[in-house]
């Protein structure tokens, strides 16, 4: 089988999420937005798909490298793109590698009629999810106060059935942010609201100092939180060694630090985290995410997967040392997460009333693509 074409399709949809000046997502008025689909086509008619493609980089850099290649040589193709990153760091990001790798896995699954987690060597078909909130805001009744977080946590746990809850608290540009005191007040309000038996986690402002991070960790220990992630800039691995040595709370990382599986290996060696974090979007796809998983298994270390989406769900269902949770969100009281994205016919992370997200048994990544919607809303 040979790759004969690589295309991107851009289409319009109505979004109810807006970005603040720092780039964090919040609820907003419905407005037009654009989504892109990467398609890898073969001479045998089989295709692979991934949403969220970077059209310019795919066209200029990736397409010429993929045409004529065997799509089943995923490892070779991933290594080839990784090597090309050295001279194209500004454009050929790990996100671009992610979209290509996911489309290749999708293609392979579609070619042999199996879901990706079974190609990886399946471990399970469903994973418990945690409710992962958007960052704090100033919207009345949204995520503006500790009480708002408490009310939303109660709804997520007792009404919707999530077994666990993670707060993303306030960050600039919101007034008064960041604040260790207010973060701990929100964490305390949530613990008070859901009782002692629910797993709770915190992802705060990402640029606290060492002392502020330790203060947070000590506060969370008292509130019996399960973990904290990324309270400081992850480029300073030494700061995380300092924090992990002094705190009894599980410190999870690295999340956004670049460096793929190499960086995870260094964090393990340095003792910079108790639990390693990876995600298909952070490291360049399913292929390197599984390298991280196997690396951690070799050290008896747990892995927590960053972010939702089908790629991460298939990885979670193929992990031998299971990640505890699928990160579902980012959720907000004003946003209906169960709403099906316009470009799909059904949600790709369906969660049952017990809080389990089920992986699709359909071939490939298993997304049920709404081709009519895409074709009716093309950006020419
Ligand atoms: O800063 C944000 O908007 C969130 O922290 C986001 O990056 C989220 O993906 C995350 O960190 N989840 O764990
Ligand atoms: Mg995080």
Describe the structure in your own words:
The chain is of the alpha/beta class and 380 residues long. It has 2 domains: 3-114 and 371-376, 2-Layer Sandwich (Enolase-like, domain 1); 119-358, Alpha-Beta Barrel (TIM Barrel). Helix content is 37%, strand content 21%. The protein contains 13 helices and 12 strands. It has helices spanning 55-66, 74-85, 94-112, 116-120, 146-160, 180-194, 210-222, 237-246, 260-270, 280-283, 286-298, 310-316, 371-376, and strands at residues 3-19, 25-42, 47-51, 126-133, 164-168, 199-203, 227-229, 250-253, 275-278, 303-305, 326-331, 356-358. The strands form 2 sheets. Strands 4, 5, 6, 7, 8, 9, 10, 11 and 12 form a 9-stranded mixed β-sheet that branches. It has a 3-stranded antiparallel β-sheet with strand order 1-2-3. α6 packs parallel to α7. The longest helix is centred in the first third of the chain and has 19 residues, at 94-112. The chain is globular. The model has no long low-confidence stretch (mean pLDDT 97). The structure holds ligand LLH and magnesium ion.
Provide the list of bound ligands, each named once.
ligand LLH, magnesium ion
Number of helices: 13
The quaternary organization reads as single chain
Order of helices and strands: EEEHHHHEHEHEHEHEHEHHEHEEH
Quickly list its features.
21% strand; nine-stranded mixed beta sheet; binds magnesium ion; 380 residues; binds ligand LLH; Enolase-like, domain 1; three-stranded antiparallel beta sheet; 2 domains; alpha/beta; TIM Barrel
């Amino acid at each position: 089988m040979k790759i004969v074409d690589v295309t991107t399709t851009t289409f319009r949809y109505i979004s109810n999420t807006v970005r603040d000046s720092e780039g964090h997502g919040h609820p907003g008025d419905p407005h037009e937005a654009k989504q892109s689909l990467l398609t890898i086509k073969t001479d045998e008619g089989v295709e692979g798909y991934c949403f969220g493609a970077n059209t310019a980089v795919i066209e200029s850099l990736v397409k010429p490298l993929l045409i004529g290649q065997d799509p089943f040589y995923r490892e070779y193709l991933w290594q080839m793109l990784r090597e090309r990153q050295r001279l194209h760091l500004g454009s050929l990001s790990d996100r671009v590698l992610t979209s290509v790798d996911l489309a290749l896995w999708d293609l392979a699954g579609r070619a042999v009629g199996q879901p990706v987690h079974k190609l990886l060597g399946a471990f399970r078909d469903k994973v418990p999810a945690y409710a992962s909130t958007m960052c704090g805001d100033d919207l009345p009744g949204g995520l503006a106060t500790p009480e708002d977080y408490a009310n939303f946590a109660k709804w997520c746990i007792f009404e919707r059935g999530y077994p666990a809850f993670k707060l993303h608290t306030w960050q600039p540009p919101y007034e008064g942010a960041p604040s260790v005191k207010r973060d701990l007040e929100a964490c305390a309000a949530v613990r008070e609201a859901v009782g002692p038996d629910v797993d709770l986690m915190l992802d705060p402002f990402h640029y606290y100092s060492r002392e502020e991070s330790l203060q947070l960790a000590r506060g969370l220990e008292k509130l019996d939180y399960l973990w904290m992630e990324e309270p400081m800039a992850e480029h300073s691995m030494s700061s995380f060694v300092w924090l992990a040595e002094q705190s009894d709370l599980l410190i999870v990382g690295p999340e956004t630090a670049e460096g793929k599986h190499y960086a995870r290996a260094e964090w393990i060696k340095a003792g910079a985290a108790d639990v390693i974090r990876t995600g298909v979007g952070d490291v360049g796809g399913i292929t390197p995410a599984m390298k991280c998983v196997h690396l951690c298994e070799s050290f008896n270390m747990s892995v927590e997967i960053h972010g939702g989406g089908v790629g991460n769900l298939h990885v979670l269902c193929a992990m031998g040392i299971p990640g505890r949770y699928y990160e579902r969100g980012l959720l907000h009281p004003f946003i209906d997460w169960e709403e099906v994205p316009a470009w799909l016919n059904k949600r790709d992370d369906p969660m049952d009333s017990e809080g389990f997200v089920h992986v699709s048994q359909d071939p490939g990544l298993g997304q049920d693509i709404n081709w009519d919607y895409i074709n009716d809303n093309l950006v020419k």
